[in-house]
Amino acid sequence: MIYLNSILDVIDNSGILKFKYINVLNKCIKPRYGDIIIGIVYKVLNNSVYKKSDKCKGILVQQKLFLNLKKYYSIKFNKNAVIILNNNLISVGTKSNNYILKYIKYKLNIDIKKLKINFI
């Protein structure tokens, strides 16, 4: 489960390594797959555009919680991960490092077209 001040991994090449969770945009208590969350940059690369303690948005794409997709089919990831978005809800990075659920692409009208993604 993801709670307040949880530290999440970033799986795109935006230059951010860790992301600290603050709030969900749709005012739920606990975020689910595909929710847009607000957070703080916790750890960055040296040559990144972002600095430590900058506010930014992200979309939750991996979670340690089980998700039942069909009747006898469920999936669980090993870590909690996000993809960084800018203020216009367009992905900052150009490449993703891990698998992402396919229905997240259709759940929101977010421009993830320029990301090279491996879908499950």
What does this structure look like?
The protein is mainly beta. It has a single domain, classed as Ribosomal protein L14/L23 (Ribosomal Protein L14), CATH 2.40.150. 4% of the residues lie in helices and 43% in strands. It contains one helix and nine strands. A five-stranded mixed beta barrel has the order 1-2-3-4-7. A two-stranded antiparallel ribbon has the order 5-6. Strands 8-9 form a two-stranded parallel sheet. α1 (103-107) links the parallel β8 and β9 (116-119). The longest helix has 5 residues, at 103-107. The protein is globular, with a radius of gyration of 14 Å. The relative contact order is 0.23.
Quick tags:
5-stranded mixed beta barrel; globular; 120 residues; Ribosomal Protein L14; mainly beta; 9 strands; 4% helix; two-stranded antiparallel ribbon
